[in-house]
Structure formats: C-alpha cells, structure tokens
Amino acid sequence: MKIKESGENYLETIWKLKKRSANIRSVDIVEELGYSKSSVSRAVNILKNKEYINIDPKNGLIEFTEKGFQKAKDISERHKLLTSFLVSMGVGEEVAEADACRIEHVISNDSMAAIRKVMEKAEK
Fold first, then answer.
1. Are residues 88 and 47 in the same domain?
2. Are 62 and 97 in a shared domain?
C-alpha cells in the first residue's frame, strides 16, 4: 500500500527525531512540526494502521516497524542525495533543502538512480 506525501513527511520527522533521542512520542512530533495535537494524532494512527510504526500503549513511545524503518531510511537518503545534487548544481543550501523535501516524494526510482550515478561519479 502506497503512503501519501504527508505520511512520508511524518516518517521522515520521526526518523530525524530518533536520531536525537530513542524515546519519541506524538508530542515530540507536535513540537517539531508545529502542528496541532489532533493532526499529529490522526497521522500517527494512520501510520500505525498501515504498519509503519508501533505505539507502546503504556508509555506512548513510537517505534518503527521493519517496514517503517526501511521507508523512513529511504526517504531520508533520497532527501540527502537530492539536497547534495541541487547544491552541486549551484543551488543555495536552504533552497536545495526545501526543494529536495518536495521532490523526494514524487521522483521516480529511475531518476533517483540516475542522480545517484551522477553523484557517485562526481565524488570520484
């Protein structure tokens, strides 16, 4: 089942938060994104129902499922690669970061593979 862009953004946010702290709750996502508690609660429940995350009923801690971990990792890698690619073409860091955030959700795997190949050649 395909996940929507907003769901991918939540997974990426959880990924970033988990890099800072192992214990993540919905309130941390609220603080990070500045969204309402109800919006985050709804999104987190959708991710749970689609089996991307688990939520501990005792303490509310959010953990990735294997499926969610792989998806979040892929989104994060796409974001980093696209940002680097845009910066290498002369786009400013801030603009590249914002554009990568939008592009990462719609770019095809073929295009990502081509960009990856170009960037690997550039690194050599």
1. no
2. no
Amino acid at the residue 122: A
- Whole-angstrom CA distances from 68 to 49, 50, 81, 88, 97 are 12, 9, 20, 30, 23
Number of structural domains (the chain) is: 2
pTM value > 0.85: yes
* Cα–Cα distance, 119 to 84 (Å, whole number): 8
Q: What is the pLDDT of residues 74-113, one digit of tens each?
A: 999 999 999 999 999 999 999 999 999 999 989 999 999 9
Query: CA–CA separation, 43 vs 29, rounded Å?
Result: 10
Q: What's 4's DSSP letter?
A: P
Q: Are 43 and 6 in contact (CB under 8 A)?
A: yes
Helix (H, G, I), strand (E, B) or coil at 18: helix
